[in-house]
Amino acid sequence: MAEELLAPMVGKILKIKVKPGDAVREDDEIMVMESMKLETGIHAPCDGVVKEIKVAEGDRVEEDDLLAIIE
C-alpha cells in the first residue's frame, strides 16, 4: 500500500536525499526543508521503496503538500 509523505509545514525544499526506486527504512531522512530559517529533516513514515518524488530542490511548499510517495 502506498504511503504519502506530506509537508509538515510551509517552507522550501533544500535537499532531496533519495530518488525513485530507492529503498528506505522507517525514519530515514528523505529530504531537508527550511522553514523560518530552521532546517528540518523530513523522514520516511514507513519501510518501502520511493515510487515518486513530487517536489524539486528549491521548491516552496505549503503545509500538507504532497512531497513523495513510498510503497
Report on the architecture of this protein:
- The chain is mainly β and 71 residues long.
- It has one domain: OB fold (Dihydrolipoamide Acetyltransferase, E2P), CATH 2.40.50.
- The protein is 0% helix and 54% strand.
- The protein contains no helices and eight strands.
- The strands form two sheets. Strands 1-8-6-3 form a four-stranded antiparallel sheet, with no helix packed on it.
- A hairpin with a 2-residue loop joins strand 4 (29-35) and strand 5 (38-43).
- The chain starts with a strand and ends with a strand.
- The model has no long low-confidence stretch (mean pLDDT 96).
List keywords for this structure.
globular, OB fold (Dihydrolipoamide Acetyltransferase, E2P), 54% strand, mainly beta, 71 residues, four-stranded antiparallel beta sheet, 0% helix
